[in-house]
Design brief:
With 413 residues, the chain is an alpha/beta fold. It is 40% helix and 15% strand. The chain is elongated.
Amino acid sequence: MSERFAPFTAAQCESLRAALESPKVRDVNELAALRASLTDVDHPLTALRALAREDPDWSARFFERAVPAILDAAWALVAQGVPSIPVHTAGRRARAVIPRAAIPGWLAHLFLGTLPRPSLLHPSLNGGTLLLRDAPHELAKLQCMMELFVRARARPLAGRFTVERRVAPPRDEATWSYEKAPLSPFTVDATGLIEDADDHLQADFANRYLGGGVLTGGCVQEEIRFSVAPELLMGMVVSPMMEAREAVLLHGAERFAAVQGYGYKMRFDGAFTDAAPRLADGTPDVSVVAFDALDFRKGDPASQTDPARMLRELEKARAAFLHDARALPVATGNWGAGAFLGDPQLKAVLQWIAASACKRAVRYYTFGDARVDGLAAFAAQAPRHFDGAGALWKRVLAVAPRRPDDLFAALLA
């Protein structure tokens, strides 16, 4: 079920229309003045000033191309009256479809500071936070996002963007133990990238608040993906915090920018032409599923092998991989095994069990992580040891709480 969210009143639309209809913005100071007139808050636009110092050519292009696109999109959204958008409710299955042509307008208001979040359960939509930061990786995220506005002004985005909230019916440990689905095909890829896996359900190693720290300092897998494909930011407007058996499917987001490096070493690498397949209406046929792992940064990572916690991760992965008519294979990797301190071997096995129960094959990207060097060998041998997903789950319950140094080997012993 989706409800409508209207962030502006009729009076606010009139004020926005008057401010945006014919603005003259030629430099950072004029943009700061316009933003202050819209929000009643002075903002130093630190990121834009840093980019102007470091790359004057980029700054010139920004004011020649990106700023007019942002202002045009922001004005267009309110020009036809009070805009509204469908938003989801935690704990309920829902599906919202948004014309891609409208998305630049919503994101323009995010960056201008005029887009409130629908509720306290929604992620922060304060694009001004990103504009305050001058760390190189934060500037790279901003540069990536601006490519959407430039491209959309030259040619309106075709097709639609879909946000689907998935809720898995609960299962307990015993029910999982009787899961008869055979272990699905499992391929290990040591060098590829999840986002290049066309015709796959692509994993987003999410925060429970969709988008994680994309606007607030984070720069790992989820934040980078949302930066190079900024339409994913619309999912933050639509979908509130995920609960334990929920995941969010995002379909139709195009990549507009390329990057080099990862984490704090990420740098903008120019505009990107996305070769992903398209539907007849122009929608990029790209499915990204966001699902959040348990975060052990403020807890004891050793507790992740407690049966209740393993069951929680198994249920979360099932919500992400729920069977549907297309049954695309899953493109995933070391979910929750970086900043969240999860065990990559355990997470790989739990994802395989969940995908098998959902009748999906798995392509697992290791990103060269030595902690899962034995995964390919385990995946080759496991079907001969376990006659189904439930049998592997029972073995995990028996072995993982002992916290062996090599879970793969212990499961096969």
